[in-house]
Each structure stands twice: as C-alpha cells, then as structure tokens.
C-alpha cells in the first residue's frame, strides 16, 4: 500500500514527457514529425536529470513501447528517477498486470512510481485491476488521465474502499484549453490532496513562441493539422501578450505558458527533445507571475476563440 501521499514525495515543479521519443505508431514520428533516437536523447536526459528534473512521464502506447525502451536505457545506473507510465484501455485488452510487467521490463524498473489509467474506458474494471498491483508494491501511486470529474471520483472511491488512494490526475490543460478547471476537477484535486498534472501546456508547440502564421508547424503531422495557418493567425494577439509578459520576466513565451500552469497549482508535463527545452524549463520554474499577468494571459487566450481538444479527448464538463 502507498506509505506516503504523492504530495509528500520530492517531485519537481515540472515533469518531463517523452511522448515524442522514438518512432512508430503514436510516437513523435507521426505526432510531431520527429525521428529521435536513444543516442540523441541520452545527453538531454542527463542534462535534465542532473538539473533536478527527475520525474519522467511515458506510456506503453507511446511508439508502442519505443518511448519506454529509450527511457529505460537512459535511466540505467540512476536511483533518483521518479517513473510515471500508463496503461491504455482499448489498445490492449490483456490484463493490466501483464501490460505493467512489459512496461517495467522495458524501463528496467521493479515498480512504477505513478501508474496511470490512460482513459476512462470502463472505470470500474480497470481501477479494480490497479488494486492488487498497488498492494504488491508494483505500483506506488495511482493516477487517472483524461477522466472527467465523476470518473475521477469513481476511481477514487474504488481505491478508498480498499484503503488506497488516488494520487494524481493528468489532463490536457493550457491557456487555450481550461476544461478541467471549468469542470471543477482542479479544485477537487486541491481539496483532496491529489496532484494535477497538466499536459499539452504548450499545445504541442503552438504556444512556444517559435511558430506563427508565417512560420507554421510542420504539415503532415497531427499538431500541424490542428494548429494550421488559420488557427495560428488567431493566436497572434495571445503570443504577443505572452512575449510582452515574458520580456518583463526575462523569459520566452514558452516559459510564460509553463509558469502560468505552475501558478494555477498544477505540475506541467513538458516534452523535452533539445537542450534548450531543459534550460527553458529551469527558467520557467523560477518565474512568479503576478495576478495581473495571469488575468492578462487568460483574457488574451479567451479572446482568440481557439479551443482545440485532442481527437482522443472528451469534454470535461
């Protein structure tokens, strides 16, 4: 059973995600247009981990094992890494324990620090399969991802009935997509000492400040189709505001988006593929936005009218 809550763990203010690590189905190859190998990523991992970014988030479905395999190679010889990986109902109907064992084998680990149920496909069935894994010690903390408030509460109730607890919720959350906040999920997490992890805080690069209508995201990728030229034109005013606020704090727009997610009481999960991503996260962690900064950012985001959810997502309301 979980001895201490996730809130008591020494986790960094920013987690690093590895969705874009490796090639194959559901990998950085078709989502981001990347073709990243272990050789390229190892020095980036070491730079990040040595800087204190020790929480690494992956999933069996990312590259269908490719991401976990690279993470497993990167963490060899280290005992300071907090591992977060996921089981995705619907992708495989094999028992959760079998999937977890495969994940742990790829990661070279004896347990998952956080094990997530990646979607709410049959909450009762899959949450119940977590119970023996937590009691055996294979899973230290339980999390749910892409669940709405009622589904979060249902999962928490199933765990509590066995003397266990839900430790974390991981949903899409950004300046452009605040569905989990509007639905009361973030408030619920705060009230119940559950850590809320926000993913796609940079909207797969659209809020990084690197892209614009004149410099669009790569076509032929999922993010390039979602944030096409027409959508990027609508983001001009928000990106300008992010740049202005960033200048006041001596950081780039990407760091403003990350700092906003931290200021909202969440742990952002940031994709890391380059050394500058590590340096940017370190800078963002040191930014303290004012209430006025936050209001300006949220007003500018709302004014864009852009509200894009992933094809795998449902509304949280």
Task: Please describe what this structure looks like.
The protein is of the alpha/beta class. It has one domain: Alpha-Beta Barrel (TIM Barrel). Helix content is 43%, strand content 13%. Strands 1-2-3-4-5-6-7-8 form an eight-stranded parallel β-barrel, surrounded by five helices. The longest helix is centred in the middle third of the chain and has 14 residues. The chain is globular and about 50 Å long. The mean pLDDT is 91.
Question: What is the compact description of this entry?
Answer:
The protein is α/β, with parallel strands linked by helices. Helix content is 43%, strand content 13%. It has an eight-stranded parallel β-barrel, surrounded by five helices.
Which key phrases capture this entry?
317 residues; alpha/beta; 8-stranded parallel beta barrel; 43% helix
| Average pLDDT reading | 91
CATH topology: TIM Barrel
Low-confidence stretches: none
- Relative strand content: 5-15%
Roughly how much helix do the residues carry, as a percent range?
A: 40-55%
Main-sheet strand order equals 1-2-3-4-5-6-7-8
The H-level CATH homologous superfamily, spelled out, is NADP-dependent oxidoreductase domain
Question: Would you identify the CATH architecture?
Answer: Alpha-Beta Barrel
Q: State the domain count.
A: 1
Category from helices, strands and their pairing: alpha/beta
Radius of gyration: 19 Å
CATH class: Alpha Beta
Number of strand elements: 8
Q: What does the largest sheet look like?
A: 8 strands, parallel, barrel
Which H/E pattern describes the elements? EHHEHEHEHEHEHHEHHHHEHH
Shape: globular
- The termini sit apart by 32 Å
Question: Based on the structure, what is the oligomeric state of the protein chains?
Answer: single chain
Number of helices: 14
């Amino acid at each position: 059973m979980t001895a201490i809550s996730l809130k008591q763990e020494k986790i960094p203010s920013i987690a690093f995600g590895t969705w874009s690590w490796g090639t194959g189905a559901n990998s950085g190859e078709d989502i981001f247009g990347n073709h990243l190998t272990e050789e390229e990523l190892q020095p980036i991992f070491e730079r990040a981990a040595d800087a204190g970014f020790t929480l690494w988030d992956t999933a069996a479905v990312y590259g269908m094992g490719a991401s976990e395999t690279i993470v497993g190679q990167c963490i060899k010889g280290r005992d300071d890494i907090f591992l977060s990986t996921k089981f995705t109902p619907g992708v495989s109907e094999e028992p959760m324990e079998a999937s977890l064992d495969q994940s742990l084998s790829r990661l070279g680990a004896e347990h998952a620090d956080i094990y997530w149920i990646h979607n709410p496909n049959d909450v009762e069935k899959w949450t119940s399969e977590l119970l023996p894994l937590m009691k055996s010690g294979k899973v230290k903390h339980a999390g749910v991802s892409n669940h709405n408030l009622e589904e979060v509460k249902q999962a928490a109730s199933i765990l509590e009935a066995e003397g266990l607890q839900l430790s974390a919720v991981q949903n899409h959350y950004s300046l452009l997509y605040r569905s989990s906040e509007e639905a009361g999920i973030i408030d619920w997490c705060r009230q119940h000492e559950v850590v809320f992890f926000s993913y796609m805080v940079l909207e797969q690069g659209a809020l990084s400040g690197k892209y614009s209508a004149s410099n669009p995201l790569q076509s032929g990728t999922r993010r390039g189709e979602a944030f096409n030229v027409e959508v990027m034109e609508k983001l001009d005013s928000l990106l300008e505001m992010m740049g202005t606020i960033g200048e006041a704090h001596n950081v780039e727009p990407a760091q403003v988006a990350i700092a906003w997610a931290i200021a909202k009481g969440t742990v952002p999960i940031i994709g890391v593929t380059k050394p500058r991503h590590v340096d940017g996260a370190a800078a963002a962690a040191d930014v303290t936005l004012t209430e006025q900064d936050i209001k300006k950012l949220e007003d500018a985001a709302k004014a864009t009218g852009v509200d894009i959810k992933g094809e795998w997502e449902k509304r949280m309301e």
